[in-house]
Amino acid sequence: MALWKKTAGVAVAALTALAGVACGPQGGSTEAPDKQTSVLELLASDLKGSLQKAVDTTTKTDSVTVKMTGTMSGQQVSMQGVLDLGGAPKAEMTMTVPEGKTVTVRMIGAVFFVEIPAEDRANTGGKRWMKMDLSAVAGNKAGADFGKQFEEMDPIKQVKTLLGIEGTKVVGQETVNGAATVHYTVTTPVATYLEQIDSKRRASTEETLAAQGVKEIKLDLWVDEQYRPRRASLGMGKMGDMVIDYTDYGKAVTIEAPPAAETADLAEMLKGMTTTTT
Question: What is the pLDDT of residues 90-117, one digit of tens each?
Answer without folding.
Answer: 889 898 876 777 889 898 877 889 899 8
